[in-house]
Design brief:
- By secondary structure, the chain is an all-alpha fold.
- It has helices spanning 3-8, 21-46, 48-56, 67-103, 105-116, 121-138, 153-171, 174-179, 181-187, 193-218, 220-246, 273-291, 294-302, 308-360, 369-376.
- The radius of gyration is 22 Å and the shape is globular.
Length: 390
């Protein structure tokens, strides 16, 4: 048995025993330092939410965002992340994880410096592209795949599941919601949209922590299914809000969600503003307790060690590509389908994500990598899941 095989037979979450206190402190310090990467990652992603409304009203015409520029400002970070993912995989292979994590600070700092010193829209977009590049490096995406491995069911089945999980995560509309949260609250005539965005962030942190605490008791599949159901109801309710406030008879199907709106509530939206706020908060809570963290966790659990790096890279590249498509086309969907139609479309994708979870995603709680691989290859029976890719 090779060292790699021995590692695959160990429980995925077993903590190493016998470590000294100083070593434990170093481990926690290293984990804290590593956590700063996702923190910067989240800041880069969420920055567009409060920035877009301000930039649309910028005093300088050179910095003022129109509809197209605002759409690119929110979405271009994902293009940078896709490129950074490929670069991150190359760096990991040649420089190791530690140096790669250190190097990703360079485009983070450079990107926000460019944004701070921006004199025109192109500098704003360039800064966002650099911060996206840093996000992709932090994700440690590998550049390619040894395609011959896809002939093995122990590889192609988890590969299909991993890609599908990443696609469904983005098709829920989470990045579009987070990028445009403040603008959405303004459209909902919520008086303090900046405070609402802060509340959304707090809810996301709290429910992600709850998911981390209960994940090894409740199981991955249960939390994914429950999370999907919550998102179905919340996106449906949010769509219902826009239907009730904007769905009156009209010959035009175009609604400019990103345009500056009056903060004076209309008579039709006064009593429904809290429906929008509650639906948004419920969506964030539902996403944070399941479809936010669990696809990333499952991606680290279901791939055999000899393909884990590259398979994970392809999956995360898929995630960023889908994030770009959803974010870039969000405003267009709002115009074509109207806001309520766009959110009801997201609800439909959430329904499909629940069905996919129940049909194809195995429960990995308490299982070794060897057991999970054997399940996908049909050599181990205690994890029967109907409808998986064959």
């Amino acid at each position: 048995m090779t060292p790699g095989d021995q590692e695959e037979t160990q429980p995925l979450l077993r903590l190493p025993g016998g470590s000294s206190a100083p070593r434990g402190r170093r481990v926690f310090l290293a984990a804290f330092a590593a956590a700063l990467g996702p923190l910067s990652f989240g800041f880069a992603l969420g920055y567009s939410s409060p920035a877009i409304p301000s930039l649309r009203r910028a005093a300088s015409p050179a910095l003022r965002l129109d509809d197209a520029a605002a759409s690119w400002f929110g979405a271009i970070v994902t293009l940078g992340a896709a490129a950074g993912g490929v670069l991150g995989g190359w760096l990991v292979d040649r420089a190791g994880r530690k140096l790669s994590l250190l190097l990703c600070a360079v485009p983070f700092v450079a990107g926000f410096t460019v944004i701070t010193a921006a004199q025109n829209v192109w500098m704003l977009l360039g800064g966002r592209l650099l911060t996206g590049l840093a996000c992709g490096i932090a994700s440690l995406v590998a550049p390619g795949f040894h395609l011959a491995q896809l002939r093995r069911p122990g590889v192609y089945k988890p590969f299909i599941i991993g890609i599908s999980l990443m696609a469904f995560q983005q098709l829920s509309g989470i990045n579009a919601v987070m990028f445009y949260a403040e603008t959405i609250f303004e459209e909902a005539k919520f008086k303090d949209s900046s405070l609402a965005s802060v509340i959304v962030g707090i809810i996301q942190v709290l429910f992600t922590a709850v998911a981390a605490l209960v994940m090894d008791r409740a199981g991955r599949r249960l939390l994914l299914a429950l999370s999907g159901v919550v998102m179905v109801f919340s996106t449906s309710a949010f769509g219902a809000y826009f239907k009730l406030t904007q769905g009156g008879p009209s010959n035009s199907s175009h609604v400019d969600l990103l345009a500056p709106v009056s903060m004076e509530p209309t008579s039709g939206s006064v009593g429904l503003a809290w429906l929008a706020v509650g639906s948004m908060c419920l969506f964030i809570a539902g996403f944070a307790m399941g479809w936010g963290p669990i696809p990333w966790l499952l991606m680290s659990e279901i791939f055999p060690l000899h393909v884990k790096g590259v398979a994970t890279g392809v999956c995360v590249l898929t995630n960023w590509f889908m994030a770009f498509l959803v974010t870039k086309e969000f405003s267009s969907l709002m115009e074509v389908l109207r806001p309520y139609g766009a959110f009801w479309l997201a609800a439909a994708f959430c329904i499909f994500s629940v069905l996919f979870t129940l049909a194809c995603v195995p429960e990995t709680k308490g299982k070794t990598l060897e057991q999970i691989t054997a399940h996908f290859e049909g050599r181990w029976q205690p994890l029967p899941v109907s409808g998986c890719p064959s």
